Amino acid sequence: MKSEIRHSISLTLVLCALGTGPAAADKKPCNQKAAMDAESATDGLKTWNSVYRFYEQFSHCDDGGIAEGVSDSVAKLFANRWDSFSEFVKLASNDKGFENFVVRHLDETIDWAGDAPKIRENARLHCPADSGRLCKILTAKTARRGR
After folding, report:
1. Cα–Cα distance between 44 and 73 in angstroms, integer?
2. 10 Å Cβ neighbour count for 105?
3. Distance CA 52, CA 96 (A)
4. Under the phi-then-psi rule, with left for phi > 0, alpha for psi from -120 to 50, and beta for the rest, what region is 146?
5. In this structure, is residue 21 part of a structural domain?
6. Would 120 be classed as within a structural domain?
7. Which of 2, 10, 12, 55 is the most exposed place for a label (fewest CB within 10 A)?
8. The whole model's pTM is what?
9. Would residue 46 count as lying in a domain?
10. Alpha-carbon 5 to chain mean position
11. How crowded is residue 68: how many other Cβ atoms within 10 Å of its Cβ?
């Protein structure tokens, strides 16, 4: 019995190492210059194309104040630029990593009093027929969280 458990644990550890090793190795480090460039770039995130370029260039620096800047920009785009939602849908349908990146940024740092209700309303009332899955995700991510 104990040998079966040890074998199972060993197998799990090997599978985890195989599953996460290459992904972790592919992530480039965020050096000081990249972090400074990423911080500056967050001010220019006014369109989905600019968010996508940021994702491609700086996603390895997506932490701390940089991540908060991205979250704010993502929330503002969903709240105030719903007319550009189709651009997001197109980019996200071609790159699931980008979709995950954006959805992850609807986090506790967004404006829950201003942006979250607008995002939820846009997703519930103005969702394109072919984007129901994404709109449901946005609605769920912006649901009141004990606020």
Report:
1. 9
2. 23
3. 12
4. left
5. no
6. yes
7. 2
8. 0.80
9. yes
10. 37
11. 16
Q: Identify whether 44 is part of a domain.
A: yes
Domain count, the chain: 1
Quick: pLDDT tens for 40-90.
Answer: 999 999 999 999 999 999 999 999 999 999 999 999 999 999 999 999 999
As to burial, measured by CB atoms within 10 angstroms (0-12 exposed, 13-18 middle, 19+ buried), residue 101 is: buried
Cα(131)–Cα(76) distance, integer angstroms: 19
Residue type, 9: I
Domain range for 74: 29-141
- Contact predicate 131/89, CB 8 Å: yes
Cβ-Cβ contacts under 8 Å for 102 (sequence gap 6 or more): 51, 55, 74, 88, 92
Two structure tokens written together for 53: 């370029």
| Residue 104 in tokens | 């992850």
How many CB atoms are closer than 10 A to CB 48? 23
Determine the pLDDT at residue 116. Answer: 97
